[in-house]
Amino acid sequence: MKSLRNTCLILGLLGLIPPMAVAQQAPAFILMDQEPHHHLTLQNEFVKVFKVEVAPGDSIIMHRHDGDTVAIAVGEQMVTVGYPDKPEVHQKNPDGQLRLQKSGYVHSTRVDPGTAYHTVAVELLHAQSNPRNLCAAVMAGLPLNCPDMPKSNSSAKYIEEPQFNSDQTHVQMVRVLPGQKMNFGDAMHFQLIVALDPALYGPSVGYGPSKKVNPGDFFWYEKGMTSLPFISMGTNEARFVEFDFNP
Questions:
Q1: Can you say how many angstroms the Cα of residue 197 is from the centroid of all Cα atoms in its chain?
Q2: Per-residue pLDDT tens over the stretch 196-217
Q3: Cβ contacts of residue 123 below 8 Å, gap of 6+?
């Protein structure tokens, strides 16, 4: 097979076979859906949501993203990222970091020994027009466009930190302060909520016990659904990532 590929390349350079025939010898990569560590847990009109957990020292094999994907680091990660056409990179992904992996992105990820790896990967099924960073470098190498934010006051229950925006999607980090709560569920938008910290979730007071939320848990809200509280516990804030989708 190697000899045949080399022959095709030589003949292609000499113009004796069409360039398309040479291109067809290039390696193919599996899709993210086929990568065994990516577990599809939600799919609808707007998103595919994958839970990704990898044991220390194990690897996510080389794969391709067919759609723009927001990777959310649940806990700090130490990894080596491999590429098909450039040197691999060893890097730290901080807890709560959001990274936009563009459509067509191809990579592998090797997890450092002794390091946990937990990611929620949100594939955006609609093409994103006019994408831009807000207050975080979700798209690496591009400038921030952080809007002027009102100063928080001592009575604030939560803090909203805009992360990313396009004509189709708005993403923000929400920090619910210790002992406080925030209602989510929005009559104007479809929403995805991804928890980053332990918390309690709904129902409204007096309508039954709240449910325990673990880091990496997520909730989908149809437009017009009844809002429910997200409640921090004890002395720690509770963070979640909120995706708002235009209908």
A1: 16
A2: 999 998 775 555 678 899 999 9
A3: 32, 47, 48, 49, 50, 65, 66, 67, 68, 69
Domain that holds residue 93: 27-124
Give CA–CA dist 32/38, Å, rounded: 7
> Among candidates 132, 196, 217, 140, which has minimal Cα distance to 170?
132
Peptide bond into 203 cis (omega under 30): yes
| Beta-bridge partners for 181 | 231
Tens-place pLDDT, residues 76-127: 999 999 999 999 999 999 999 999 999 999 999 999 999 989 999 999 999 9
Is residue 238 domain-shared with residue 192, that is, in the same domain?
yes
Question: Beta 132-133 vs 59-64: how paired, if at all?
Answer: unpaired
